[in-house]
Model the fold of this input.
Amino acid sequence: MSLNELLDAVFRWAHLIAGIMWIGNSMLFNWLDRNLEKQAGLGKLSQGKIFMVHSGAFYDVEKKLLAPGELPETLHWFKWQNLTTWLTGISLLVVVYYMNGASFLVDASVHDVGPTIAITLSICSLFTAWILYDLLWRTLGETRPRLSNAISVAILFGAMFAFAHVFSGRAAYIQTGVMIGTIMTGNVWMVIVPSQHALIEATRSGKEQDPALSIRAKQRSIHNNYLTFPLLFIMISNHVPAATSHHLNWLILIVVMIGGAGVRHFMNVRYLGAGKELATAAWLAPAVAMGALGIVGFMAISRIDPKPKYGIDHVVTFARVQEIVGTRCLRCHSLHPSDDVFTAPPVGVMLDTPDQIRVMAPRIKYRAYDLANMPFNNKTQITDIERAELAAWVDDGALLK
Ligand code: HEC
Done:
């Protein structure tokens, strides 16, 4: 195992664990907030109570503001899960996309940028995104939240479109994800945590908290809430090559994001406050509809095919297939790859022997012809005719003769 692979595994594992803790916490608190019950007899600083049963006993939780002097010794914060998720995410970005000559970041068939420029663009876009977003919501966002929402979404979709035209497909998705994750982390550390500090200070000195701070923090935490489902899809998007390497990959992501945020929305409005819960049908149906819309949109767009069909009217022999595989695939998909980056056969796929090629035939057609995203970043410069020859051989029964 190379150092790069080891770091990849360690950061990925930590990223997943921290991410589950962060998003899990945030979902639980969202749920708590929406399920608080106002009861008679609670103090005027109380915002409601809730009883839960878990792990062998009952939890009696009350959400309230505190009078001066009531601040407890130990106060638990929930901010490190977010920071750990972000730091491990950035580390993964570096290990997977920046190292190895940025070979996952750049795809010459998308845009012929050098690794240095690609990496610089990737880093700069993260800073720019946060600065623009924060500035927008500290100015216009205070008075015109709807307009600011529209502008934010337009900038997000615009950035996705730009990424899809500069970076490789999978990198464009991940870059969008890191950008969203960076904004969410900025929201936690630059807005939400400071607002909590101010709340503690105000409580200590017996004053009201500056409402502007808490309104801003609430805004940002709602943004984070809506961004979670889309971001989680991006985290798994490398396993959906039909989306990432599609020529309209940015449009697919937009559809999936709208679907994911929509599902989150209907989960949010599910609880309107104690006694006012929406009937299950009233939120579940639209939530399922949004999810279905995302999936149907994904299916529809990923079928739009830009490739000219090359009519191969001769029989493609197995010898010819072996020749193509030998020059275009074996560099990586071999027991002993000669590639500089992939020193072990990617995902264990080896195409050294006739049987290995025959067994893989459907996937070869799917990846080299239908999706046309193998060879990886077309590093071995396969031609469209060769892709069509591979497909024709598979269609004719993938015979070894
Ligand atoms: C530069 C290295 C490289 C070359 C050359 C290459 N591949 Fe791949 N291949 C990869 C990597 C990396 C993966 C895993 C990531 C992925 O699935 O996108 C992979 C995965 C695959 C998979 C398994 C995933 C699946 O969807 O079943 C198949 C099949 C495949 N490649 C076929 C081919 C064929 C056919 C060629 C030649 C026409 C080829 N590859 C050339 C790097 C390469």
Remarks:
- Residues 241, 328-329, 331-333, 339, 342, 346-347, 349, 360, 363-364, 367-368, 374-376, 379-380, 382 surround heme C (CB under 6 Å).
- The first strand starts at residue 46 and ends at 54.
- The chain has two domains: 3-67+75-303, 318-395.
- The CA atoms of residues 316 and 393 lie 6 Å apart.
